[in-house]
Helix-turn-helix domain-containing protein (Streptomyces albiaxialis), 324 residues
Amino acid sequence: MDGAGEGTEGARDAFVVDTTAQTSRPEAFAGFRQQWETQIGDGFPLPDFSPATTGDFRVRGQATKVRDVALTDVNAASAMRTADPGALEDQVRIWIVRRGAWTLCGGTGGEHTVSFGQFHLRHVGNASHFATAPHTSAKVLVLPAATLKPLLRNQAVTGSADSAEVRLLVAHTNMIHATLSELSPAGVHAAHGALMELAKSVAVRQFDGQEPLLAPALARAAKDLADSRLADPTLSTATLARELSVSVRTLQRAFAAEGEPVTAYIRRQRLERARLALTAPSGRPSVSELAAHWQFADSSHFIRAFKKRYGQTPTDYARQTDRA
């Protein structure tokens, strides 16, 4: 979870954990530790955990190693606490907390609690403890110090998890979790390079929109943001660019690299949400309601767009769904 170290050049590995349904908590923790040590632990040893943690370990999450970087997503129903901070360390870590709280105790930087909706980035030069509140959801990144430490100037960086730089970093780590097994050695190299560039962006609070390595992360972050606001009438390329602190042209270039304009992506996702609504067994909205909710000019525009996308009018599609 909070272990660290130097990875092997070119190394990559990953595993998923879910101990929430296991009845033997000590056995659940032992299984997690074995997976970590087998898949991630080379260069990223786990600290020792308290007896309360090992005795009640209810966690869902995933961990991925990309060369000398470790990425961990944690959704813990139970609280966690270290018992022994382990050896001296020399890494940079980023904690991004979406729910609950993650408290860092001692070590370089002193005690600090990362609350929900916040991130904290700092160099870890001394061994330290950590503790989490129950029902904490967080992402923890362990990164090599050599590149990032000079940017920090012995200062921690703290702010909103919804900042543009953190959104981009989160989007990229999610892509790595999802695609690591499919990446070629060149893909692993590119993924690692983009990770480091995005971590630098968080450290200096500024995203380099001209860095080509970061285009996929920018496109993914924009898509995630758009998906959460598809019913918003103000959603546009300009609003997405503003939220992500890049120019409209930079965002358009990132989408062009993936072969689909921003506006086309938004319309496609809105049509897909409308299609799913038409499959509802009850409480199905009317065509006019769907058109209004998903921000089409009127029912006629919605019907034409739907038919072009799916080969049927919304009404015909709903009837077919009823017959199936």
In short: The longest strand covers residues 91-99.
